[in-house]
UniProtKB/TrEMBL annotation, chain A:
InterPro entries: ComplexI-like_HydComp, NADH_UbQ_OxRdtase, ND/Mrp_TM. The chain crosses the membrane at residues 32-51, 71-89, 101-134, 146-168, 180-201, 208-229, 241-259, 297-316, 336-353, 373-391, 412-431, 451-471, 541-564. Residues 112-382 form the NADH:quinone oxidoreductase/Mrp antiporter transmembrane domain. It is found in: Cell membrane; Membrane. It comes from Sedimentitalea nanhaiensis. It is a multi-pass membrane protein. This is Multisubunit sodium/proton antiporter, MrpD subunit.
Automatic annotation (TrEMBL), chain B:
The lineage of its organism: Bacteria, Pseudomonadati, Pseudomonadota, Alphaproteobacteria, Rhodobacterales. This is Uncharacterized protein. Keywords: Membrane, Transmembrane, Transmembrane helix. The chain crosses the membrane at residues 31-49, 61-86.
């Protein structure tokens, strides 16, 4: 029976039922049970197009289960479970419903076999997720949420425009691989690119994720961007431009992450950088690189959630996630520190941790297809990941200078969520085969060769040594309370300022015209009134009697002239 | 919630007490020297196995190590320079922006370790 229900509907039904349930443990159990049931369902589903729906003459595919969609749906279910476990203490119904709707919409989008279904779920993720930001209930989060929503919904509208053009061009709404060329495909590409945080379209990510609630950010980090990665892998695999876009994506966030003070924003930049590796994998488009993308997305969701969880736990206990305010927390939050270190090692791709067995697929695929510069950039970006996620996050939170804060260890449910996630990161790192078996294509790759391990360790250990050197010489930039400009400056500062600046002269011109108009009109009316009004000069000399007299005189003259001639 | 009371390490979690070792005098030095030792071993390890390089650069002994050290340092220096240009005060976007506001306390559970 479970086969007939689209996985997304499980989440939606639970989200509808949630408000009627009593607060507390029962809701918590539902929030955990639904992702678990959904994961079992996804696991046991046969491959194929399982559910069709007629919709205004279109046949919609709600459940296209193949190896690519299955691995993404599965990790989304796991992420929803872990996120909800982490949020066990939350009693806010808005966040609970939003988390379920959001996860459901993301899974629905992954299983969408046609572009109309994709559009509905695409917008669904946007609308449901913004409540995780608004749930903070502050002025700042409201405005940030608005910006997030405008951009996310904008991406959906662009997608819709692309789908309509596509339908006009080809008469098909199937969501299959596309070739860039027509306006339709470019629009769809752009829409995916916004959600995937392409360079210059990226800043919604770093703007909004630090504004969400402690638990909301953990949930946000899993879905939207990885849905976009999935959509790109489905629609634009092997599109060469993605290689270059991805390479830039791996590169530029590492500089911003290095000097950012808010650790949750550091993680958002780091997320952006990790997406770059996946996008490069999609652009290369070989079986190996697409396997790399899918597996990296899988591993990434886990370790990124783990890092957001550990920083979130610190925030939960101290009220801040700013590096300048933190430090030395290992004394009283040692377990959170250890979990954070596992996440840091995983994202940095240390051997025996999950990032190593997945990122190396993309790296090797890039090298195999002979893109030396892209490969060199990604190698550089790997050192960059170590710098901000591998070192900065754990070091400045739990070690470094003692902030004097002595918070209690994270609550048990948070430790449990972090513990399970950390265990998964290590398990995937040590035993990659089960994950490899889930991937869209056959994997013939051995991550643990002497060469791979030694070279990777060399890269990381020498970079660590560089960090020690730079810290000791005082060259490493200190953590200071400040923000950094990014592209959000254009719509948070430049445009409002431009409008403000323009409003002066433009308003002045309008005012001038107005004054000119009134004074000129007034003058004209006065002049006319002066001449032609009841007291006017012209009307003064026009009494009727004078008129008659003058006519009589004229007639007399006419008479005399005609008589004389 | 800076702790005004003197620390009582006996009440730290056991793992936290164990980790206090890193604050011991000279212990950070030991970690750095150990790391340097590991780096030397890794560099030498490059000569012990047969490489399957994709690119010629990979044949240079210790290429990955050198690349990691140099690029990491370059990254920090470039980022530091970048900060010079793009750093702004926290209230740059106004006092109501999320970078300025306090996180709502009712969402948190700020407890000290010995509470």
């Amino acid at each position: 029976m479970l086969e007939q229900i689209p996985t997304a509907f499980l989440y939606f039904l639970a989200a509808l039922a949630l408000p009627v349930l009593p607060r507390g443990a029962i809701r918590g159990v539902v929030l955990l049970a639904i992702p678990a049931i959904a994961a079992l369902q996804v696991w046991s589903l046969p491959l194929g197009n399982l559910v069709q729906l007629e919709f205004f003459g279109f046949s919609l595919d709600l459940m296209r289960v193949d190896k690519l969609s299955r691995v993404f749906a599965l990790i989304f279910c796991i992420a929803a479970f872990l996120g909800n476990l982490y949020a066990w203490h939350v009693r806010d119904i808005v966040q609970q419903v939003a988390a379920l709707m959001y996860a459901g919409a993301a899974i629905g989008a992954v299983f969408a076999g046609d572009l109309i279904t994709l559009f509905f779920y695409w917008e669904g993720t946007a609308i449901s997720s913004v409540f995780l930001i608004w749930a903070r209930r502050t002025v700042g989060s409201f405005h940030t949420g608005m910006r997030y929503l405008i951009i996310q919904v904008g991406s959906g509208v662009i997608l819709l425009a692309g789908v309509i053009l596509m339908y006009v061009d080809t008469g098909s709404i199937a969501f299959e691989r596309m070739e860039l060329g027509s306006p339709a495909t470019w629009l769809i590409f752009l829409s995916f690119g916004i959600k995937c945080a392409f360079p210059l379209l990226h800043n919604w990510l770093q703007d909004s994720y630090p504004a969400a609630t402690v638990t909301g950010t953990v949930i946000l980090s899993a879905f939207t961007t990885k849905l976009a990665v999935y959509a790109l892998a489905r629609g634009f695999a092997g599109t060469e431009i993605l290689i270059y876009i991805g390479a830039i994506m791996t590169l530029f966030p590492i500089f911003f992450a290095e000097i950012e003070n808010d650790l949750r924003r550091v993680l958002a930049y780091s997320l952006n950088n990790q997406l770059g590796f996946m996008v490069v994998g999609i652009g290369i488009g070989t079986e190996m690189s697409l396997n790399g993308t899918a597996s990296h997305a899988f591993a990434h969701i886990l370790y990124k959630a783990l890092l957001f969880m550990s920083v979130g736990a610190v925030m939960f206990r101290t009220g801040t996630s700013k590096a300048s305010e933190l430090g030395g927390l290992y004394r009283t939050m040692p377990r959170t520190a250890m979990f954070c270190l596992v996440g840091a090692a995983s994202i940095s791709a240390f051997p025996l941790f999950s990032g190593f067995v997945t990122k190396s697929l993309v790296m090797s695929a890039t090298a195999e297809e002979n893109y030396p510069w892209i490969w060199a950039i990604m190698l550089f970006a790997s050192a960059g990941v170590l710098s901000h996620s591998g070192i900065k996050i754990p070091y400045f939170t739990f070690f470094a200078h003692d902030s004097g804060k002595r918070p209690k260890e994270a609550p048990v449910h948070m430790q449990l969520a972090m513990g399970i996630t950390a265990a998964l990161c290590i398990l995937i790192g040590i035993f990659p085969e089960p994950l490899y078996a889930l991937l869209p294509y056959e994997v013939e790759y051995q991550p643990y060769t002497v060469g791979h391990v030694v070279t990777q360790l060399q890269l990381l250990c020498f970079a660590l040594l560089a960090f020690c050197f730079l810290m000791r010489t005082g060259i490493h930039p200190a953590e200071i309370r400040a923000i950094n400009l990014d592209t959000d400056w254009t719509y948070r500062r430049m445009l409002p300022r431009l409008i403000q600046w323009l409003s002066g002269p433009v308003g002045g011109i309008f005012k001038g015209i107005e004054i000119l108009k009134t004074t000129w009109l007034k003058g004209m009316i006065i002049t006319l009134y002066h001449s032609f009004g009841p007291q006017g000069r012209t009307s003064q000399f026009w009494p009727t009697g004078a008129m008659v007299l003058w006519i009589a005189v004229l007639l007399g003259i006419t008479l005399m002239v005609s008589y004389a001639s | 919630m800076a702790n005004k009371k003197p620390d009582n390490p006996d009440r730290f979690p056991p793992l936290g007490r164990a980790l206090l070792w890193v604050d011991g005098p000279g212990n950070v030095d030991k970690i750095v020297y150990a790391l340097a030792g590991v780096c030397v071993v890794l560099f030498l390890a490059d000569f012990t196995y047969k490489k399957h390089p994709y690119f010629t650069a990979e044949e240079i002994p210790g290429f990955y190590g050198i690349y990691g050290f140099v690029m990491f340092s370059a990254l920090i220096l470039v980022a530091k320079t970048l900060r010079f240009f793009i750093k702004r005060p926290e209230n740059y976007y106004g006092d109501k922006a999320i970078d300025r506001e306090e996180y709502p306390v009712d969402e948190l559970d700020e407890v000290d370790y010995d509470a």
